[in-house]
Amino acid sequence: MATATTNATTFLWEGLDRKGSKIKGESQASSEILLKADLRRQGINPLKVKKKTKSLFGSKGKKIIPKDIAIFARQLATMMTAGVPLVQSFEIIGRGHENPKMQELVLSIKSDVEGGTSLADSLEKKPNFFDPLFCNLVGAGKQSGALEALLDKIATYKEKTEELKAKVKKALFYPIAVLVVAFIVMIILLIFVVPQFQSIFEGFGADLPAFTQMVVNLSDFVQKYWWAVFIGIGAIIFGFNTAKKRSPAMRRQLDILSLKIPIIGGILEKSAIARFSRTLATMFAAGVPLVEAMESVAGATGNALFYEATMKMKDDVSTGTQLQQSMKQTGIFPNMMVQMVSIGEESGSLDEMLSKVADFYEAEVDNLVDGLSSLLEPLIMAVLGVLVGGLVIAMYLPIFKMGAVV
After folding, report:
1. Taking Cα atoms as reference points, which of 389, 391, 393 lies closest to residue 219?
2. Do 120 and 139 touch, CB atoms closer than 8 A?
3. Contact between residue 298 and residue 311 where contact means Cβ atoms under 8 Å apart
4. Which residues are 15's β-sheet partners?
């Protein structure tokens, strides 16, 4: 029930119909008075009319991140299990959230559900926050009458997934952060420290050692063109990210190469296997048919190589091939996982076996991240020592040479 008007404002309204039943909706009108008059002509007695607030992208507050969605899923699962009605659960969660954007998201879902829209359909309208996997599981839970149980599985899945992502980010962030700091320290030394030594060297009246001359030349270049250095680095990063977004072939090659990086490649591979197992276990337990589940599973792996393998497995399974046989043919899944899936298919407990596989590989990722941190600490100290120590040696070489002559 909406009235489109030129230069109209969108209003949210509540009222009573001719039978005295409470209804609500969203309409456009030039003013609140005109909207109320229009509602009365339709046989609706307006009780409350207010302007619709700005969209999620226009409201103030922190950006909604996947962790917020995971917390939302857990809160909703807890309240539904406790017997709190769905609409009231949204009201409690929405009003109690500190982030205005998250409040608006939850209350907009509440408004949709109150208006007669199913929960799954309402979530599908917000693809930036709720992926197809989330929506499919909610839809399956609603159809089976076990929405509370499915929400609990979704919450567990989201929590495990975010925990795994945090571990992988931890493994990648530490070395990158240290290298960035080392680069900044080098630039500072070249711009402010080396020139002080250079002024001393000019009074020696002798040729500088080759290593020292190279550092002095580098310092001169950085002092003159430091802005070009930073612009160049920014342009390279921007160009790389743009090319990566626009080129599926480039993303595929990067994903393949990332799996070959020592230690880090193992972390990325095991995290992809863990996400595959966790996602498929969750969907299979929810009663989603295996073939339908595979597409969501493919997208959840986060790696092009595993995506392609999963889509091939989907085609194989749809023609009657057993899942474990199809997995074995891809050649990228470990033998232990294939055996576990085989046992799960034979015993009818595939979701349980996949959950155990996910637990195992998540623990493996955790151990690898801890091991990487221990390994990188001395390695990074050595790199910093070579960079900073190299500059110090370069600056003192002429002094040592002069002392030897004396």
Report:
1. 391
2. yes
3. yes
4. 23, 46
Residue pair 95/180 in contact by the 8 Å Cβ criterion: no
Evaluate if residue 90 carries a pLDDT over 60: yes
Q: Tokens 């030897």 belong to which residue? A: 404
pLDDT of residue 403: 58
What are the structure tokens assigned to 28, written together? Answer: 């456009």
Residue 44 and residue 27 in contact, taking contact as beta carbons nearer than 8 Å = no
pTM: 0.64
As a dihedral over the C-alpha atoms of residue 251, residue 253, residue 255, residue 259, rounded to 10 degrees, the angle is -170
| 142 touches 287 (CB < 8 A) | no
User: What is the layout of strands, in order, in the sheet containing 22-29?
Assistant: 22-29, 9-16, 45-51
User: Percentage of the chain with pLDDT > 70?
Assistant: 92
Sign of CA dihedral 213, 214, 219, 225: positive
Q: Which residue has the higher pLDDT, 56 or 189?
A: 189
Burial of 190 (0-12, 13-18, 19+ CB in 10 A): buried
- Kindly give the interhelix angle for 147-188 and 350-405, rounded to the nearest 10 degrees: 10
Least confident of 53-57, 243-247, 331-335, 387-391: 53-57
Which position has the token pair 């320290």?
A: 185
Q: pLDDT tens digit string along 164-177?
A: 778 777 777 777 77
